[in-house]
From TrEMBL:
<protein>
    <submittedName>
        <fullName>CopG family transcriptional regulator</fullName>
    </submittedName>
</protein>
Amino acid sequence: MSARRKKRQMTVYLDPVLSRAIGEMATRRRQSGSLVVETALAAFFTPEDDAAGEAATGRRLDRMERRLGRLERDVGIGVETLAMFIRFWMVSNPPLPEPLSAAAQAQAAERYERFLEMLGRRLSTGQRLHGDLRPETDS
């Protein structure tokens, strides 16, 4: 009997969409999800022959290009939104008279601290507002 290499267990966290895709592939092929992931990782880390390797690399680059395009679009929308908000804020809010300025600055500092706390909580949950606005598609 030959000595068999013992497999090591690893825990990973996957996006729910990717996890579903692995489960569906395993069901279609009547294999375990572990084998599907192992095969995919082996293909990813194995040097590819010229023709198939170039095609796989091309597909990966195309996918990355689409993701970067979405990222560029999202950042542009965010910058434009912020610029419009700042312009609107500056036009609609005249400067305060000097006697009220100190009190307003103190209140603004307090409100800003609350905003940072709320932002920190929101970011720690992993939820993003832009995710609420449109569904993500990874094609």
